[in-house]
TrEMBL record:
Its EC number is 3.1.3.41. One of its GO terms (cellular component) is cytoplasm. It holds the Pfam family Hydrolase_like. This is Haloacid dehalogenase domain protein hydrolase, 4-nitrophenyl phosphatase. Mg(2+) binds at residues 8, 10, 206. It comes from Candidatus Wolfebacteria bacterium GW2011_GWB1_47_1. The lineage of its organism: Bacteria, Candidatus Wolfeibacteriota. Signal peptide: none annotated. The keyword Repeat does not apply.
Amino acid sequence: MIDSIVFDLDGTLYLGEKVVEGAIETIAALEAEGYRIFYLTNNSGKMRKQIVDKLNNLGFPAHSGNTYCIARGISHYLVEEEIGPIYLIGTNDLRRELMSNEIVIKEDPGVSAVVVGIDPAFSYQKIAMALDAIDGGAKLIVANGDSSYPIENNRRLPGCGALVAAIVNATGHAPDVHVGKPNTYMLELLCREHGLSPERICVVGDMPESDIRMANNFNCQSILFDPGGNFSDFSNMKARALNEIISLLKKGR
C-alpha cells in the first residue's frame, strides 16, 4: 500500500521562484491523509541545505531528512564506493557539499574520476581537463543526463546533460555512472534511510524520461503531472492538476 509520496521539484512544485498552482495545498492535504512527503530533485547546482531553505521559503514543509538532491547523492556514492580523488565540473555549492564529506577534489588530470554537475562556468579548458583525466583511466560520473530544465515564463535553461554531451563527444567515453534520475540510486538511498520499499512509494513528476522512467525502473507507482495534458505511456497515473493526486491515490489505495 502506498504511504509515501516522492515529489520532483522543478516543473512539478515550482518553476524558478514561482510555486505551481495548488502545490502547497496538495502537500498539506496529503500529510493530513497520513502520507509521508519526500522531495527528490536532479538539481546538481545546490547544496541540500539550500534546497531545503528554498522549499521552506516557498511554503513547503521540508527538512534535511526528507530532501534528496544530487549533491547528497554524489557525496554518498563517492564515499560508499571509496572513489577519490576527483576532478569536479560543477558549482561552488556542489564543491562545498562534496568537501564537507571529506571528498578530495584536485585540479589536475591525475584523479580516479571526473564528476560532472551543472556548471554555469563550463569551458573549453574544463573539457580538456576531463579529456586528459578520462584518457588516463578516470571514470566519468555524472549527475544526470537532463538536456534542459524548466523555469518561469515557459523558458528553459541548459541542463547537466548538455555539458555531459560535450565531454562524451570529446572523449568518446560514455558515462560510467548516472547518479540522478532516471537511475534509481537516489530512490534506493531514500528507501534505505527510511525503511521503505517500492510498493509503498509513488513518484510524482513532470518528466517522463526522468521522473517516470525512474519510477518504472524501481517498480513503484508514479503520477505524471502535465497541466497541458500531453501524456505519454510511461506513467501509471496522470494528472493535469496537482489537486487530482489525492483522488488518484485513493483509487489505488
